[in-house]
């Protein structure tokens, strides 16, 4: 039996589906585009992987620790659209009906929980289904990312080799790389004037932020040296914000057995598809999940 653990950044994929599918409503006006998109995504996961171990990981509540470090953390984020919010409870039901575990913990972001789970179960290969570049910091020979790419079916693997190819640095340097350039999506400012190319050059030369600060006089470009000196506090704060917390205690998931996938509840999946008038989804649910329920019929 395949012992690979599949972990999904839930809200990232819900948002992607919500924005990726044109406006879709039932005949009585209920929004259904995010439900439809998640249904298609669940089918893709089943067809591609038929996982035995897996979970969708959700953010829950405000990210307390990071807000203590930076009160304006993610302050640039827009609130969840009402039409999407109306679909969340149904999407959660659908994910559970497809056999997946749902994991969340008050005050913790999904990225931290994803990283904590991936690092906890160190005997299992782990595939984290997320496009968030922060996750690249935990990629190693055992932990890989699976990236969704527009107009490309399935997933692209981001392993150690591909992290290096993508960012021109090693996974263990991702935290320092992002600390240097900042992350506008999380409202984290980097060092003024330091973009990806400069950050890569600095990390190739010095290896880490600690070494950059320690050996700052070796930076030949005076303006860059001055910016680094002026930004030491920013770099230290950024590194705290960007480092994923792999020490989170997830009491209900202290054994890999707690990540066992359940058999799908096809009746529940069909009820949701039919209630939201998603006929093509109902047809695919029957076809794809029947294979998991009765594998001998497809041998």
SSE topology:
Elements (H helix, E strand, L loop, with lengths): L4 E5 H11 L12 H17 L3 E5 L6 H6 L12 H16 L3 E3 L6 H11 L5 E4 L13 E5 L8 E3 L1 H8 L6 H8 E2 L4 E2 L6 H11 L2 H6 L7 H9 L1 H11 L23 H10 L3 H15 L6
Parallel strand pairs: 1-2, 1-4, 2-3, 4-5
Antiparallel strand pairs: 5-6, 7-8
Helix pairs in contact: 1-2, 2-4, 2-13, 4-12, 7-8, 7-11, 12-13
Task: Report what the structure shows.
The radius of gyration is 21 Å and the shape is elongated. The chain has 2 domains: 211 residues, 5'-nuclease (Rossmann fold, 3-Layer(aba) Sandwich), CATH 3.40.50.1010; 72 residues, Orthogonal Bundle (DNA polymerase, domain 1), CATH 1.10.150. Helix 4 packs antiparallel against helix 12 and helix 7 packs across helix 8. A hairpin with a 4-residue loop joins strand 7 and strand 8. With 299 residues, it is of the alpha/beta class. The strands form 2 sheets. A 6-stranded mixed sheet has the order 3-2-1-4-5-6, with helices on both faces. It has a two-stranded antiparallel sheet with strand order 7-8. Helices cover 46% and strands 10% of the residues.
């Amino acid at each position: 039996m395949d012992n690979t653990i599949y972990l999904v950044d839930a809200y990232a994929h819900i948002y992607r589906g919500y924005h990726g599918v044109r406006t879709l409503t039932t005949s009585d006006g209920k929004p259904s585009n995010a439900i439809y998109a998640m249904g298609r995504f669940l089918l893709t996961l089943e067809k591609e992987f038929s996982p035995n171990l897996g979970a969708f990981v959700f953010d829950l509540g405000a990210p307390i620790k990071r807000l203590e470090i930076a009160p304006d953390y993610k302050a640039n984020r827009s609130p969840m659209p009402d039409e999407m919010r109306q679909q969340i409870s149904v999407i959660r039901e659908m994910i559970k009906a497809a056999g997946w575990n749902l994991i969340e913990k008050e005050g913790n972001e999904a990225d931290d929980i994803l990283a904590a789970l991936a690092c906890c179960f160190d005997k299992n290969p782990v595939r984290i289904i997320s496009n968030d570049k922060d996750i690249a910091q935990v990629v190693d020979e055992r932990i890989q990312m699976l990236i969704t790419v527009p107009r490309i079916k399935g997933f692209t693997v981001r392993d150690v080799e591909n992290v290096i190819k993508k960012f021109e640095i090693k996974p263990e340097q991702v935290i320092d790389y992002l600390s240097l350039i900042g992350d506008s999506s999380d409202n984290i400012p980097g060092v003024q004037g330091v973009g990806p190319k400069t950050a890569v050059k600095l990390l190739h030369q010095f290896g880490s932020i600690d070494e950059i600060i320690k050996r700052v006089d070796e930076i030949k470009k005076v303006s860059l040296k001055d910016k680094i000196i002026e930004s030491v506090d920013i770099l230290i704060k950024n590194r705290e914000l960007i480092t994923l917390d792999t020490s989170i205690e997830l009491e209900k998931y202290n054994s890999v057995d707690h990540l066992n996938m359940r058999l799908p509840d096809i009746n529940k999946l069909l009820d949701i598809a039919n209630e939201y008038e998603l006929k093509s989804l109902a047809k695919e649910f029957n076809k794809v999940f029947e294979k998991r329920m009765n594998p001998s019929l497809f041998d």
